[in-house]
Automatic annotation (TrEMBL), chain A:
It comes from Paenibacillus roseus. It is a multi-pass membrane protein. This is ABC transporter permease. Residues 16-210 form the ABC transmembrane type-1 domain. Belongs to the binding-protein-dependent transport system permease family. CysTW subfamily. InterPro entries: AA_ABC_Transporter_Permease, MetI-like, MetI-like_sf. Keywords: Cell membrane, Membrane, Transmembrane, Transmembrane helix, Transport. Pfam families: BPD_transp_1 (PF00528). SUPFAM superfamilies: MetI-like (SSF161098). The chain crosses the membrane at residues 20-43, 55-79, 85-108, 149-171, 191-214. One of its GO terms (biological process) is D-methionine transmembrane transport.
From TrEMBL, chain B:
GO terms for biological process: amino acid transport. SUPFAM superfamilies: P-loop containing nucleoside triphosphate hydrolases. The keyword Membrane applies. One of its GO terms (molecular function) is ATP hydrolysis activity. Pfam families: ABC_tran. This is ATP-binding cassette domain-containing protein. Keywords: Amino-acid transport, ATP-binding, Cell membrane, Membrane, Nucleotide-binding, Translocase, Transport. It comes from the Bacteria. GO terms for cellular component: plasma membrane. Belongs to the ABC transporter superfamily. Gene3D superfamilies: P-loop containing nucleotide triphosphate hydrolases (3.40.50.300).
Length: 221, 255
C-alpha cells in the first residue's frame, strides 16, 4: 500500500536536500545582509540615534518596493538579474536569487522592529559611557534584541520554506515543488500526504528549535 | 571642575520650539555634591545631560576641567564621557547581561586591559555590597539592588564625576536612604564629584553641599546648604533651609 511512496523515496530525499539548500542560502544571506540593513534602518530613523533622513527614506523606499511584490511576480520580474548573477534562470540555485532578494528586506524589517523594542534608556546609558556607534550596535542593541532577532530568523525560515515551493516554477525543485508535481499533477494523494507530513514535521522542528533559542537568549524572565 | 556658561537649549516639538534651558550658568567644584532641584519639566535632566553633551547646547560652553566639550571632536568627547559616568532613575541595566557583565560594559567600551577587568568589576561591586549577586541577571534584583549595580557600573572607569538623574525616584523610601548612603560614601572616600538631579527635598537635605533651583528652564537661585546667612528666594529653598512649615513641604515634595 506504500508502493507509491517507497518508489519516490529517493526523489523525496533529493527534493528535501534542495529545500535545505535553498533555505540555508536564503536565510544565510537574509541574516548577512538584512541584519546590517535593518540596523541602519533603525539607526537612521527620525528621533533614533543618528540624523540621516535621506538615507533612511531611501532605504525605506527600497525595502517597501521589494516587499510590495507578490513573491511569484518578484521571481519572474527579476529573471534578468538572476541570469546576471548565476548565469541561468532555471534550477535550484537560480531559484535562490529571488528568495534572497525577497528575504533580505523582509528580515531587515524584523530586525528594525526588534531593535525598536530595545529600551532607549539603555542606549543612552551606553552613550554616557562614551560608547562609539559600533559598540552601541554590537554590545547593546544586538545583545538586547537577540531573542527578537532569533525569533525573526525562525519566522523567515518557516516563511521561505513555503516560498521555496513557488520556486518550483523556475525548476527550483525542493519538497514543496515535489508535492505539487506528484500530488497535484499526478493525483498521487498518498505521496502528497506523505510529503505534507514531512513538511509539517520539518516546520515543527524549525519552530521548536527557534523557540528554544529565543527562550535561552532572553534573560528578562 | 565643571563650568556651565550661559547654556541654552531649545527643542523642536510638534507644537513649536520649546526652550528647555534658558541661559543657565553653573559652577561645580571638585568633590562637591551638587543638587539640582525643581519641579517636573523644569529642565533639570536636560541641564544634567549637557554636562556630558548627551544634549548639545545651542548656545554657551560646557567646561570640564578646563576643556570646552562643545568644541571637542567626537573621539575626544567619547573619552571624556568615560570619566563622567551617569546613573539613571530607571537604572538602564542591560537585561541580557549578568550583574558582573553589566559592570564590565564600560570597561569593554573604554578598552580597559582585559586581564585586570575582573578585579576591577569585583572591586566596584564590593563598594555597593553586591558581591553575592555577581552572576544574577537584573530581572532577579530589587530596585535598590539594580541601582547599586548601576552605581558600580558607573564607578568602573574611575570617573571624576557622577551625574545622577533622579537616582532615588524609582525606589522605596528605605532603599532611597541606602542609595544616598552609597553616593555619600563614594563622594567622601573616592573624592568623586556628584551632580544629582532630583525633585525630592529630602535628597538634597540629606547629601547635597550646594544646590541650584530650576524653574521653567532657568536657574533661579544657587546656594550652599550650610550658608546660614543666605536669604532664600523660592518656596523650595525656604523649605530646604528650614524656614517653611512642613505642611507646605509635603505638598511641594511630591507635586
Ligand atoms: N528630546 C526632547 N525633545 C523635546 N522636548 C524635550 C526633550 N527632552 C526634554 N524635553 C522637554 O524639555 C522640558 C524639560 O525637560 P526635562 O529636562 O526632562 O525636565 P525635568 O528633568 O526637570 O523634569 C520639558 O518640557 C520636556 O518636555
Ligand atoms: Mg527629569
Amino acid at each position: 500500500m506504500f508502493d507509491n511512496i517507497i518508489s519516490v523515496l529517493p526523489e523525496i530525499q533529493i527534493a528535501f536536500g534542495e529545500t535545505l539548500y535553498m533555505l540555508v542560502i536564503t536565510v544565510g544571506f537574509a541574516v548577512l545582509l538584512g541584519l546590517p540593513l535593518g540596523t541602519i534602518l533603525y539607526y537612521s530613523r527620525p528621533g533614533s540615534v543618528i540624523k540621516a533622513p535621506i538615507l533612511n527614506a531611501l532605504l525605506n523606499g527600497i525595502v517597501n518596493l521589494i516587499r510590495s511584490f507578490p513573491f511569484l511576480i518578484l521571481m519572474v520580474a527579476i529573471i534578468p538579474i538572476t541570469r546576471l548573477i548565476v548565469g541561468t534562470s532555471i534550477g535550484t540555485t537560480a531559484a535562490t536569487v529571488p528568495m534572497v532578494i525577497g528575504a533580505v528586506p523582509y528580515f531587515a524589517r524584523f530586525v528594525e522592529q526588534s531593535l525598536l523594542e530595545v529600551n532607549r534608556g539603555i542606549i543612552e546609558a551606553a552613550e554616557s559611557m562614551g560608547a562609539n556607534h559600533f559598540q552601541i550596535i554590537w554590545k547593546v542593541l544586538f545583545s538586547e534584541a537577540r531573542s527578537g532577532i532569533a525569533s525573526s530568523i525562525t519566522i523567515i525560515t518557516v516563511s521561505f520554506l513555503s516560498y521555496s515551493a513557488v520556486a518550483g516554477m523556475v525548476g527550483g525543485g525542493g519538497i514543496g515543488d515535489f508535492a505539487i508535481r506528484y500530488g497535484y499533477y499526478r493525483y498521487q494523494m498518498d505521496v502528497m500526504i506523505f510529503t505534507i507530513v514531512i513538511i509539517i514535521i520539518f516546520v515543527q522542528i524549525l519552530q521548536f528549535t527557534g523557540n528554544y533559542f529565543v527562550r535561552k537568549l532572553d534573560k528578562r524572565l | 571642575m565643571i563650568v556651565l556658561n550661559d547654556v541654552s537649549k531649545t527643542f523642536d516639538t510638534p507644537s513649536g520650539p520649546l526652550q528647555a534651558i534658558v541661559s543657565a550658568s553653573l559652577e561645580i567644584e571638585k568633590s562637591d555634591i551638587y543638587g539640582i532641584i525643581g519641579f517636573s519639566g523644569a529642565g533639570k535632566s536636560t541641564l544634567l545631560r549637557t554636562i556630558n553633551l548627551l544634549e548639545k547646547p545651542d548656545k554657551g560652553t560646557v567646561l570640564l576641567e578646563g576643556d570646552d566639550l562643545t568644541q571637542l571632536p567626537r573621539q575626544q568627547l567619547l573619552k571624556k564621557r568615560m570619566k563622567t559616568a551617569m546613573v539613571f532613575q530607571h537604572f538602564n541595566l542591560l537585561t541580557n547581561r549578568t550583574v558582573f557583565n553589566n559592570v564590565s560594559l564600560p570597561l569593554e567600551i573604554s578598552g580597559y586591559p582585559k586581564k585586570q577587568r575582573k578585579e576591577r568589576i569585583l572591586e566596584c561591586l564590593e563598594i555597593v555590597d553586591l558581591l553575592d549577586k555577581v552572576n544574577e541577571y537584573p530581572t532577579k534584583l530589587s530596585g535598590g539592588q539594580k541601582q547599586r549595580v548601576a552605581i558600580a557600573r558607573a564607578l568602573a572607569n574611575n570617573p571624576k564625576v557622577l551625574l545622577c538623574d533622579e537616582p532615588t525616584s524609582a525606589v522605596d523610601p528605605q532603599t532611597k536612604e541606602s542609595i544616598l548612603y552609597y553616593l555619600k560614601q563614594i563622594n567622601e572616600k573616592l573624592g568623586i564629584t556628584i551632580v544629582i538631579v532630583t525633585h525630592e527635598m529630602n535628597v538634597v537635605k540629606s547629601i547635597c553641599h550646594k544646590v541650584a533651583v530650576m524653574e521653567k528652564g532657568t536657574i533661579v537661585e544657587k546656594f550652599h546648604m550650610n550658608d546660614k546667612s543666605y536669604k532664600p528666594l523660592t518656596n523650595i529653598s525656604k523649605i530646604l533651609l528650614g524656614e517653611s512649615n512642613p505642611v507646605i513641604e509635603s505638598e511641594v515634595v511630591y507635586v
